[in-house]
Inverse folding.
């Protein structure tokens, strides 16, 4: 596409200046542009018929070359045949795009180092509702809910444009589906696949699914009437997948006194105190160090059924008017079963060996337990979730005159996620053998090795201990109406304009039914020995370095969750405690109403080297209202040595609000230096809205507290969005029809970045037994800080004191019961996590991209590398409140292809460097670093004839594993092993 060479006059400049002046902060407008208005240069979507992988790459090249600003994309090889089976995995082939995986499958996208919450995902130009129980309060779109068969292309806008909805600081991604008028005539196909996920093989029998091969089926039908006035397109797909993952984890985080405070939970013996001689390479006084709360090995089986469908009707009553009505449905059902074994540390007498400071992690941490009467915890889970998406919309496109086109678009979409099991959306049923002696954790290899002395499963039989049954719910709704237009001002100039109103509602709710009887809830005699199934650990982690250690405690029991849950309910006489609640403890509801408008003027210049410019201005005003159901805390009860339960009364609703408005300019410039060389420059301002948990309207306390207090969260509805000023420069060389090379650099200044902060408060004035009269008397009697000793002293010397309820002694001789905080006891401190606009930051980077086709040989290669950098990094040597960019990482892709009349083959290797994935672990403000990860995917297609083809695909062919660590590499948080996935299929075109 070459821009028309029309001579520009001062009139054109005057029009551009007038357009910029028309929008003022006093005007109330909203988000705009739907469907076709997001096409390059504001023009109508141009139909490109593609029939193979090389044609798909050619179409993607044309999209990049002919667009305003920096736009990359992926175009389907054929209708109903997208290059990848997962949309997120397809997107990762684009330079600058990285993905987050869940269970080995692409789920969320990060663009140019900007995390998933700050990338806007559109569906045919419309803002889509999203929900995800794995991230109850996020804005990121879960691509796992959408099948790829009905997608015709994905456009990735890396630079801002006035006609694009806001929210995408990293990028705006537009997922476009098939339209019958875009491909006149009859087009239909059906495809089937058989899927074998090897990760399902490497699981215990109690969580493994017996079906080793699962089906996928998809089909699409599109047709138009002979006169071209009517069109219909129907697509559908159904997919099953049985998979699994095995994980070694310090899931409750790393605890430590950190710098300058040796009295916190997690302290190692100090010089001159008992046990101090057992520490090798002790952290220096000013070093930061921490120790693990637990070490857990879990084996998880996952079943998924995904159903997608779309109906599109088009009608052109006259040539100048096209109406489109479409409905989209998706359902993603997931069933999860888990068995695990873990050891929990109580930070008693210990020995340890440490890595060098100033940030130290234990190489080996050993807790001395004698006699061997602590718990070897073995748990199970069995839960299910369901996510449904519904979207309906209508679009009217009218060519009013040869120079004026108007468009109206309205739609409503909902996304709802909830439990799909009588056992809730998540749960854990704990069991234990109380025969654990001295326990060690070795962190010198990738796999953390757990060693246990004294275990005796015959003498100390398995019994059910504590349990949790959770119910999560999330629903997002988007209602949007948009009016836009394109007016051809002169032969080579165009004015785009639009108004819109958008209403976004988000509701997230949660309840937790927890029985804090981790010291033993029932008797071993309540369970026949046949319900416990002996197994070993090592084989489930054979791909992770260190799992072959001879020191590994290599035995545990699995069990059927439903069977043992029923036995526990019967034995306890409290069946309701072994089911989720029917009401929610927390219920957060946030509404956002946005009005906006935009003007954008595009023009071409008749110069020696053709120039195209686009200047735009967008105004937005958003009102926020956030209501939260806040449980009222009433008490703190010590239920075990390391478990303090917060009691709650009747919850109450609180409502807070906020508002903000922004004026967002944009400027795009490109010049054809030669017929095959294009230079670009873009400047634009964008915003990224806060997460829903950041703007919740109330303060919520966590149910489980510890010796040193509790935790909670509090939102800030007045939080401003992050505002980013973006500058992009690039050079593109299209040296053959299907080949190009490009180099781009970018810089983003982020203002009002919302970071997580922590403050200490005493909400509800809750009294804790810790530090009270009875506690201090026990400590002075010789117990010191040993919580087990303190409990025994109180129960045996003050069994009838206020708040003390003694139970019988357990099999290890320790007293059981509860101790409730009294009015004379100290008030507990809670660490409250909140958010504030307290940081400005910047990031910059570069992208190198190459696509080369080797003449008519059929061979080709794609390669790209993205480098990103920001000074806003996590400081591992600092504690407390920090602001850091999540998802910031370098990434690279290498894709080799071959195609001829019969064969199409592609091998794609994707690599992502280390990145910060969270600033909170299972304990508190500690970093999570996802280590570098690479994956190889291969696909081969054979065309039997022009209608029938066969495919073979392999995902994660080299069986890569993933690892996440904390402040040092030895502070492992998660080490995960899954497995390759293989598919074989056929596709028939009618």
């Amino acid at each position: 596409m070459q821009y028309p060479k029309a001579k520009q006059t001062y009139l054109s400049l005057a029009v551009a200046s007038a357009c910029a002046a028309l929008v003022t902060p006093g005007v109330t407008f909203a988000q705009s542009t739907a469907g076709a208005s997001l096409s390059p240069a504001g023009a109508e979507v141009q139909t490109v018929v593609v029939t193979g992988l090389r044609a798909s790459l050619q179409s993607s090249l044309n999209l990049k070359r002919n667009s305003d600003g920096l736009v990359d994309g992926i175009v389907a090889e054929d209708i109903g045949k997208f290059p990848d089976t997962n949309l997120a995995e397809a997107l990762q082939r684009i330079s600058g795009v990285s993905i987050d995986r869940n269970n080995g499958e692409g789920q969320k996208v990060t663009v140019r180092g900007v995390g998933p919450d700050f990338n806007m995902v559109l569906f045919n130009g419309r803002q889509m509702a999203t929900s995800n129980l794995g991230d109850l309060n996020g804005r990121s779109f879960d691509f796992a809910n959408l099948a790829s068969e009905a997608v015709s292309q994905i456009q990735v806008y890396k630079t801002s444009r006035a006609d694009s909805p806001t929210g995408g600081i990293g990028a705006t991604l537009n997922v476009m589906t098939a339209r019958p008028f875009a491909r006149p005539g009859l087009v239909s196909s059906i495809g089937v696949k058989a899927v074998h996920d090897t990760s399902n093989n490497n699981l215990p029998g109690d969580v493994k699914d017996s079906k080793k091969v699962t089906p996928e089926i998809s089909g699409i039908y599109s047709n138009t009437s002979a006169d071209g006035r009517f069109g219909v397109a129907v697509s559908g797909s159904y997919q099953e997948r049985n998979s699994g993952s095995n994980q070694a984890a310090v899931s409750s985080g790393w605890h430590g006194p950190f710098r300058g405070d040796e009295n916190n939970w997690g302290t190692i013996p100090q010089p001159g105190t008992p046990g101090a001689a057992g520490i090798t390479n002790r952290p220096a006084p000013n070093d930061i160090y921490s120790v693990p709360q637990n070490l857990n090995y879990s084996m998880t089986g996952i079943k998924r059924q995904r159903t997608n469908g779309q109906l599109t009707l088009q009608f052109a009553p006259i040539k100048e008017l096209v109406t489109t009505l479409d409905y989209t449905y998706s359902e993603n059902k997931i069933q999860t079963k888990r068995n695990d074994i873990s050891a929990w540390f109580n930070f008693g007498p210990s020995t340890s060996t440490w890595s060098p400071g100033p940030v130290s992690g234990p190489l080996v941490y050993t807790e001395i337990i004698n006699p061997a009467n602590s718990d070897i915890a073995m748990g199970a889970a069995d839960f299910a979730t369901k996510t449904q998406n519904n979207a309906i919309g209508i679009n009217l496109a009218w060519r009013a005159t040869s120079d004026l086109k108007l468009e109206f678009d309205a739609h409503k979409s909902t996304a709802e996620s909830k439990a799909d099991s009588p056992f809730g959306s998540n749960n854990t049923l704990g069991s234990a053998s109380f025969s654990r002696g001295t326990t060690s954790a070795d962190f010198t290899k990738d796999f953390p090795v757990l060693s246990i002395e004294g275990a005796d499963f015959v003498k100390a039989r398995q019994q059910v201990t504590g349990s949790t049954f959770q119910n999560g719910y999330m629903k997002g709704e988007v209602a949007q109406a948009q009016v836009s237009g394109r007016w051809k001002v002169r032969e080579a100039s165009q004015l785009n304009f639009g108004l819109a109103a958008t209403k976004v509602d988000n509701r997230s709710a949660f309840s937790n039914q927890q029985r804090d009887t981790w010291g033993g809830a029932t008797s071993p005699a309540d369970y026949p020995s046949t319900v416990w199934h002996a197994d070993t650990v090592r084989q489930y982690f054979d791909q992770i370095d260190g799992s072959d250690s001879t020191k590994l405690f290599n035995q545990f029991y699995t069990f059927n969750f439903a069977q043992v849950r029923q036995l526990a309910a019967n034995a306890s006489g409290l069946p309701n405690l072994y089911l989720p609640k029917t009401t929610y403890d927390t219920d957060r509801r946030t509404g956002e109403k946005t009005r906006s408008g935009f003007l954008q003027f595009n023009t071409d210049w008749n110069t020696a080297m053709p120039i195209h410019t686009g200047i735009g201005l967008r105004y937005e005003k958003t009102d926020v209202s956030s209501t939260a159901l806040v449980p009222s805390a009433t008490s703190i009860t010590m239920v075990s040595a390391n478990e303090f339960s917060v009691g709650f009364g009747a919850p109450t609703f609180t409502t807070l609000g906020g508002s903000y408005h922004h004026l967002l300019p944009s400027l795009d410039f490109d010049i054809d230096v030669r017929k095959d060389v294009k230079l670009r420059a873009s400047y634009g301002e964008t915003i990224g809205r806060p997460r829903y948990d950041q703007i919740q309207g109330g303060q919520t306390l966590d149910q489980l507290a510890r010796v040193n207090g509790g935790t909670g969260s509090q939102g800030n509805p007045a939080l401003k969005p992050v505002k980013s000023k973006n500058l992009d420069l690039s050079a593109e060389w299209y040296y053959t029809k299907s080949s190009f090379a490009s180099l781009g650099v970018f810089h983003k200044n982020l203002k009002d970045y919302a970071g997580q902060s922590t403050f200490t408060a005493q909400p509800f004035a809750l009294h804790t037994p810790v530090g009270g009269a009875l506690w201090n008397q026990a400590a002075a009697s010789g117990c010191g800080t040993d919580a087990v000793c303190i409990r025994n002293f109180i129960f045996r010397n003050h069994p009838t004191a206020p708040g003390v309820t003694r139970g019988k002694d357990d099999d290890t001789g320790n007293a059981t019961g509860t101790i409730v905080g009294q009015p004379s006891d100290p008030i507990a401190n809670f660490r409250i996590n909140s958010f504030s606009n307290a940081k400005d930051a910047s990031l910059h980077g570069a992208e190198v991209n190459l696509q080369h086709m080797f003449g008519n040989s059929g061979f080709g290669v794609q390669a790209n590398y993205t480098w990103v950098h920001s000074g806003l990094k996590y400081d591992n040597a600092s504690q407390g409140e920090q602001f850091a960019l999540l998802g910031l990482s370098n990434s690279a892709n290498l894709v080799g292809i071959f195609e001829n009349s019969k064969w199409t083959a592609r091998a794609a290797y994707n690599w992502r460097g280390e990145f910060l994935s969270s600033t909170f672990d299972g304990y508190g403000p500690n970093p999570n670093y996802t280590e570098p990860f690479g994956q190889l995917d291969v696909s081969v297609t054979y065309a039997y004839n022009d209608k029938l083809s066969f495919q073979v695909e392999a995902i994660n062919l080299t069986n890569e594993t993933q690892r996440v660590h904390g402040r040092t590499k030895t502070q492992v948080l998660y080490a995960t092993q899954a497995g390759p996935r293989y598919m074989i299929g056929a596709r028939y075109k009618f």
